[in-house]
Amino acid sequence: MIGGTDIIIPTGGGHAPLDICLRVIRRYWPEAVFEDALTGDRVERYESLPIGRLKEVLVYQNSGAAQEWDEKGADPSLSNTMIHLLLAERSVTAVVDDAAAQAMRDVLESIRFALWMDIHQRGKAA
Amino acid sequence: MSANSSGVLEKLLRENDLGWIIDWFVQPGKAIPTLLGLLEATTKESRARFGAGGPQFTVEILDNEFRQNPDKVRAFLQALGATRSPQMLVMIWRVLQGMRVQAIDMTYRERESFHLRCVLNSPYEDKPEVYESTDIVDAMLLRHLGIIEMDNGPVFEGFYPSRF
Q1: I want to staple B145 with a disulfide (CB 3.0 to 4.6 A). Which of A51, B16, B57, B156 is the partner?
Q2: Cα-atom radius of gyration of chain A, to the nearest Å?
Q3: Rounded Cα–Cα distance for residues B8 and B77 (Å)
Q4: Is B110 exposed, middle or buried (0-12, 13-18, 19+ CB in 10 A)?
Q5: For residue range A49-65, what is the model confidence (pLDDT) as tens digits?
Q6: A-chain residues near B144 (CB < 8 A)
Q7: Which residues of A touch B140 (CB under 8 A)?
Q8: How do residues B19-39 score in pLDDT, each as one tens digit?
C-alpha cells in the first residue's frame, strides 16, 4: 500500500460485515484472491474462507496481482490491485491506494451501501 | 436421530440466541425432533439435486462449520426455525457457500396463492439452480438477503443473520 487511504465504515457488529465486504469486492473482482493478513494463508475461492476467524483480509484483484505484490511489494504499478480490510467491533476499515479512482470509488460505494442496508435490515448487535 | 444430535442442535440454537425456537414450539418437546427431521429432509433434497457429493445437513457438520463461520451457521439456523421447506434450506446454504442470486420472482394473491422462485448461479460457471416455494412463510427469508447496487442496478448478495 503506497500512502493508502483508510475508509472507515460503521457496521452493526459481528463478522457479517466483513463477509459483506468480501462478497461485494468479489462482484467487482470475480477472480479475487483472499489472504488472511495475520497468518498469510491465501485462498482463491470465497467459499474456502473461514470468515469467522478473520480480522484482517487482503483481497487481491486476481492471482497475478497477488504474485506481483509478493515480488514487488508496494510498487506504484500495483496501485488499486489490492484492498486491505480490517474488522473492528463496530466498523470495517478498507485501506486502498487511490480512493478517488472511479473503479475504486464504485467498489467503496457498493460496500458502503451494502453495510448501510445491513444495519437497516438486520439491526445492530446488542 | 441420536440423543447426541439432539443435544448438539439444542446447544447450537441456544448459543445463537435461538432457544426461543424450542421454547415457543407448540409442544416444546417436539421442537428438536421436528428440526432434525427437517435437516434430514434437506440432506435428501440436496442429494437429489447434487448426488452424493452434495451438501449434507447433519448437526455435526453444522457444529463444525459454526467454528469456522459462526455468522453463516447463525443465519442458517434462523432460517431453519422459520421455514418448513427443505428446498429453501438448500437454497440458503448454496447462497452461504457463495452462489449468486440471479433472479427472484414472487407472486401473491390474497387468500389464494403465494409463489416464490429463486434462481441461483455460480460465480465460476453458468449453471443455474432453481428453488421454489408456495409457503408464504418463506417470504420471511428474503429479509436475510444482502442488498447492494452495482452500476445503478439491484443485486442481492449473500444471506445474513438478523441481530436480535
Answers
A1: B156
A2: 14
A3: 13
A4: exposed
A5: 999 999 999 999 999 99
A6: 121-122
A7: none
A8: 999 998 888 789 999 999 999
**Complex-level ipTM:** 0.87
The structural domains of chain A, ordered by start, are 5-121 (3.30.310)
B77 Cα to chain A: minimum distance (Å): 15
Q: Judge: B146–A125 Cβ closer than 8 Å, yes or no.
A: no
Alpha-carbon distance values, A15 to A53, A110, B148 (Å): 9, 18, 18
**Main-chain dihedrals φ then ψ at residue A25, nearest 5 degrees:** -60, -40
Do the beta carbons of residue B73 and residue B12 sit within 8 Å? yes
Q: What is the pLDDT of residues A75-95, one digit of tens each?
A: 999 999 999 999 999 999 999
Interface touch B143/A121, C-beta < 8 Å: yes
Please count the residues of chain B: 164
Which string of b and e fits A49-81 if b means at least 16 CB within 10 Å? bebbebebbbbbbeeebbebbeeeeeeeebbbb
